[in-house]
Amino acid sequence: MFRLVSVLLLLHSLLVLNTLLRAPSPNVFSALNIPINTSTHVIRAALVQISATTDWLDRLDSFELRSLYVRFGHNVVLTCDHCQTTGDYALYALPRPALAYIREMALVGLVTLEKLNRSHLRSVGVGILVAAFVAEAYFLGTAPIAVPPPGTRIAPEDTFMWHDQLLFYRHLLFLTLPLTLFTLPSLLKYITRSPVLFPIFIRIPFIALLIQPPLQHQLASSLGQDELSPAQLKTFLIQSCLKTLEHLVPSLHLQKLTHAALMRDSDLKSRAGEWWAREKEESDVILGDEAVKRAAKAEGLGFEEEEEKERGVGVDMDRAEGNLRTSARAAVDGLFNQGLRPSEHWVQMFQQ
């Protein structure tokens, strides 16, 4: 899954980067480097040399449409034949950016899958996209755009091309946001482990919400201190372990006594025997399945050899027992070496 998402993210980044560098939004005023109030005749004379058709320039005779050209872009103004008012052009221009943001939200959802351990960043990514969409719609709808009358001397850069600039920022966001969400966990982990970078980034409000502080910083914050010394950290950890043991040891003794009490009651003892008998039947069925044997052998936990050894079939009697039984025996021996012993009532039951 990680490799598949990486490939999709790479293809998406290359596509957006190609759009940014090679296929920007068309704009006749930016292409010719002329002011927004340039006469249509001058524009037509300049375009005759590079374009076969200039009929669409008739739409730019109206300076109101030129303001819409700045607001909604070249394609919207020149392709909407039925649009009469600003609202018509706004409704005509809305679907394309909306679908672009929805597509990007789907990509963010893919990048922040739970299998990739990035699901906690999904709300951040979607929230950024929603905020960007609302901000873009707000500025395009409310930005004041004034086209000076003909003859007024202005420079081309005096007019802020709202549609083109916001489109550029949108593509820039689409390029950086998925990459940031995909690489952020590794970067935050590095920052958390760095004694130099962590104190710096933890003071940045937004980034501090994403960084998981190390244990000693959490403890220092809970104790009202800026930093804990190694001795203080060790003391705190020992005290925490002792508190855990104070609760755990009585619970283990209670469990041991409960098991012993079960074996002293004849009815409960018989029920326990029936339960173990059912477990033995289920175990025999599972261990006798050929698919289970093959899977266990592939994982290095094969138990087929000791079964054949018990039957004396096809296996040298001097060979070591199977991997599964060897691992189980080593685990039980380790528990015995640590001082753990089974209840004598259970031992008596199995001896019977």
Structure description:
This protein has 352 residues and is mostly helical. It folds into two domains: 1-150 and 157-202; 239-299, no CATH class. The chain is 69% helix and 0% strand. It is built from 18 helices and no strands. It has helices at 2-22, 28-32, 40-47, 63-72, 74-79, 86-93, 95-111, 122-142, 162-193, 197-201, 205-210, 215-222, 230-264, 266-287, 290-298, 304-311, 323-337, 344-351. Helix 8 (122-142) runs antiparallel to helix 9 (162-193). The chain is elongated and about 105 Å long. Residues 313-320 have low confidence and may be disordered. The chain crosses the membrane at residues 126-147, 167-184. Keywords: Membrane, Signal, Transmembrane, Transmembrane helix.
Top keywords for this entry?
352 residues; 0% strand; elongated
Write a brief structural summary.
The chain has helices spanning 2-22, 28-32, 40-47, 63-72, 74-79, 86-93, 95-111, 122-142, 162-193, 197-201, 205-210, 215-222, 230-264, 266-287, 290-298, 304-311, 323-337, 344-351.
Quaternary status: single chain
Residue fraction in strands: under 5%
Q: Roughly how many Å apart are the termini?
A: 53 Å
Task: State the total count of DSSP E strands.
Answer: 0
**How many structural domains in the coordinates?**
2
Shape estimate: elongated
Query: Class by helix and strand content?
Result: mainly alpha
The level of helicity is: 55-70%
Itemize the secondary structure elements and their pairings.
Layout: H1 2-22, H2 28-32, H3 40-47, H4 63-72, H5 74-79, H6 86-93, H7 95-111, H8 122-142, H9 162-193, H10 197-201, H11 205-210, H12 215-222, H13 230-264, H14 266-287, H15 290-298, H16 304-311, H17 323-337, H18 344-351
Helix pairs in contact: 1-9, 7-8, 7-9, 8-9, 13-18
Keywords: Membrane, Signal, Transmembrane, Transmembrane helix
Signal peptide: 1-23
Transmembrane segments: 126-147, 167-184
